[in-house]
């Protein structure tokens, strides 16, 4: 996680309504030079100023198409990195608070990941190993994935990317015998099972355990080597919460994100990415009831925007992304004030060599 110098008292002591008013004024002043991106997990106070909204990859791809000189990404660090990789060099991607990281992304270090690729390949005894890396990862890990012949994936297209990895090269695939799934073990496991594989076809690679928690036989047996990482927001949802929701509201539809544990996904009615959850609830008939296992801000917004439906968080204690919350109105105002003064602060820059290889992994995914 990067360090963010605390804002001065001018911003921290400013009345909230004045902060919001001044953000609106700065946005109008900067005009077409500015594009604010808002992730669905962002708080309403910031989300309301977004010119474009979506999940992480959708926003990064939209950023690549905007003519704005300044792209303020109200998300977390890996998202801003992806935007910088995909946008022209003359665009400045800005993260209002550099300390807005991702706990899951931080669970994978690039040196450990490269060591994993080598260890698995050695133990696999000549089997072809291809990495598939979730976009919720650092640019350096995306680059290592691209260099190793792998591809990125999102929660919505993970199955298609896995199928590409396992497909023979003569059929346009990567010809993998095994996939290393980084950094979310739950997305990897849930995708493998959805493809018809069993839990025995998966093994967890733990970089913090002696021998990585795996023996050579485990590696030879498994088709999917799952990095021991997770999203703390989605790991909080449980089967007991699903049972309680169904007892409280008979006929309720339970839909969860595939970053949730395997048991939770299996017990739910539906699972899907952030955008898939949004489409499912928005497109449902009035009078339907939904319990949603994903980040709290998104669930609250879904409920507010769908007054004809009953929408609640699966958990009685809604699960929030605390690092996303670091992008707050005072930090947004601060970066806009500096832009209005002619100064770009908190610009996210990915080194050209890293960006080149990371783009290879992202482009493979997009082509798939």
Report on the architecture of this protein.
The protein folds into 3 domains: 9-101 and 323-350, Rossmann fold; 105-230, 3-Layer(aba) Sandwich (Rossmann fold), CATH 3.40.50; 237-313, Rossmann fold (3-Layer(aba) Sandwich), CATH 3.40.50. 43% of the residues lie in helices and 15% in strands. Helix 4 runs parallel beside helix 5 (77-86) and helix 7 packs across helix 17. Helix 13 (262-267) links the parallel strand 10 (253-256) and strand 11 (270-271). The protein is globular. It has 368 residues and is of the alpha/beta class. It contains 17 helices and 13 strands. It has helices at residues 9-12, 16-30, 44-47, 56-65, 77-86, 110-123, 139-147, 158-166, 185-194, 216-221, 232-235, 239-248, 262-267, 274-283, 296-305, 329-340, 352-367; strands at 34-39, 52-54, 70-74, 92-94, 129-134, 151-153, 178-182, 202-205, 224-227, 253-256, 270-271, 289-293, 310-313. The protein has a 5-stranded parallel sheet with strand order 6-5-7-9-8, sandwiched between helices.
Give me a quick take on this structure.
The protein has 368 residues and is of the alpha/beta class.
Q: What are its keywords?
A:
368 residues; alpha/beta; 17 helices; five-stranded parallel sheet; Rossmann fold
How is the secondary structure organized here?
Blueprint: H1 9-12, H2 16-30, E1 34-39, H3 44-47, E2 52-54, H4 56-65, E3 70-74, H5 77-86, E4 92-94, H6 110-123, E5 129-134, H7 139-147, E6 151-153, H8 158-166, E7 178-182, H9 185-194, E8 202-205, H10 216-221, E9 224-227, H11 232-235, H12 239-248, E10 253-256, H13 262-267, E11 270-271, H14 274-283, E12 289-293, H15 296-305, E13 310-313, H16 329-340, H17 352-367
Parallel strand pairs: 1-2, 1-3, 3-4, 5-6, 5-7, 7-9, 8-9, 10-11, 10-12, 12-13
């Amino acid at each position: 996680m990067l360090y963010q110098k605390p804002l001065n008292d001018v911003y921290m002591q400013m009345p909230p309504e004045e902060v919001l008013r001044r953000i609106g004024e700065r946005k109008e002043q900067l005009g077409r030079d500015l594009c604010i991106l808002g992730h669905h997990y962002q708080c309403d106070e910031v989300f309301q100023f977004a010119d474009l909204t979506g999940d992480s990859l959708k926003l990064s791809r939209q950023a690549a198409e905007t003519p704005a000189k300044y792209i303020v990404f109200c998300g977390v660090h890996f998202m801003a990195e992806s935007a910088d990789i995909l946008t022209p060099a003359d665009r400045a991607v800005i993260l209002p608070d550099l300390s807005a990281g991702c706990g899951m992304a931080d669970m994978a270090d690039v040196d450990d990941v490269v060591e994993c690729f080598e260890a698995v390949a050695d133990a696999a005894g000549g089997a072809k190993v291809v990495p598939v890396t979730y976009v919720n990862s650092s640019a350096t890990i995306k680059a290592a994935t691209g260099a190793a012949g792998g591809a990125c994936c999102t929660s919505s297209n993970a199955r298609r990317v896995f199928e590409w990895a396992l497909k023979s090269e003569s059929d346009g695939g990567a010809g993998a015998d095994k996939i290393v799934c980084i950094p979310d073990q739950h997305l990897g496991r849930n995708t493998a099972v959805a493809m018809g594989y069993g839990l025995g076809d998966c093994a967890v690679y733990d970089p913090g355990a002696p021998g990585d928690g795996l023996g050579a036989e485990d590696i030879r047996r498994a088709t999917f080597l799952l990095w021991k990482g997770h999203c703390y927001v989605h790991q909080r949802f449980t089967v007991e919460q699903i049972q309680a929701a169904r007892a409280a509201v008979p006929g309720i539809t339970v839909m969860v994100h595939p970053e949730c544990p395997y048991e939770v996904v299996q017990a739910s009615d539906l699972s899907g990415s952030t955008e898939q959850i949004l489409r499912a609830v928005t497109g449902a008939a009035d009078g339907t009831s939904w319990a949603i296992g994903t980040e709290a801000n998104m669930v609250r917004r879904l409920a507010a925007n769908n007054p004809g439906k009953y929408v609640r968080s699966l958990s009685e204690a809604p699960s929030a992304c605390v690092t996303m919350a670091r992008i707050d109105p005072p930090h947004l105002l601060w970066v806009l004030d500096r832009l209005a003064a002619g100064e770009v602060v908190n610009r996210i820059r990915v080194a050209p060599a890293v960006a080149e290889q990371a783009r290879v992994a992202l482009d493979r995914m997009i082509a798939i």
